[in-house]
Amino acid sequence: MAETCTRKLIVEVCNARNLMPKDGQGTASAFATVDFDGQRRRTKTKLRDLNPEWDEKLEFLVHDTDSMAAETLEISLYNDKKIGKRSTFLGKVRIAGSAFVKSGGETLVYYPLEKRSVFSQIKGELGLKVYYIDEDPPALPAEQKPEEKAPETEENKPAEEAKPEEEKKEEEKKEEPKTESNKEAKKEEEKPSPPPQEENPKKPDEAAPPVKVENLPLVESEKKPSKEEKEKAEIVRRFEVTISDFELRSLTSDRGRSAYDLVDRMPFLYV
């Protein structure tokens, strides 16, 4: 889609000549109001001057460039009521949109002031410069392509990765003792393990000669007991036997009495 341009209408209110005195003192304090496409701008007031000079630039936005020729620019002059007795009309100028020129072709043109009604007393001229400017919208910034990363080389490596050579040497020195200890451990692991011992070792060819055991002297037999000891033993044995017989008799007698220990025997007569 084609991008639409924006257009501005520039109205330079330069000066006025031979205005009608309206303040009751033979002068006028004039200011101008400019209306275009529903927009209004106002100039400053020039105190008590029938030939005022404003040299003010007023800008208006053109909403529809195609219908600009059908629009009308209207400039009206008034006597400021703050200085005079009342705000009185000093004249007006109407310019058709078809008379607008592009920027660069503008010139100062004096337009005679028009009456608002038949009974208005108006005189003088108004000097204006009217032109328009076409402004192209700002071009969108071109899409920035992502920067291609250059291949990493030793020169392009970040500072963190490129360590000075001195630090590398110090790190290698610290790692040396570790590597030596690891080498020693590896060597111990690589040593051949001793062959497993046989469970049944071979008997030597020359067996040791058997030891001859000589007949040891027999241990002396136990001493035979004397006659006195034998007699004492027989007495003890007989005493034990008599005691055991006596105990047996006492036990049997006790069993018989146990049933009648608490009751006396009494005869009964049965009929």
TrEMBL record:
Gene3D superfamilies: C2 domain (2.60.40.150)
Name the UniProt record assigns to this protein: Protein QUIRKY-like
Superkingdom, taxonomy of origin: Eukaryota
Organism from which the protein derives: Populus alba x Populus x berolinensis
Basic and acidic residues bias (residue ranges): 144-192, 220-233
UniProt region (Disordered), positions on chain: 138-233
Cross-referenced InterPro entries: C2_dom, C2_domain_sf, QUIRKY-like
Cross-referenced PROSITE patterns: C2
Domain C2: from-to ranges: 1-110
Pfam family, one: C2
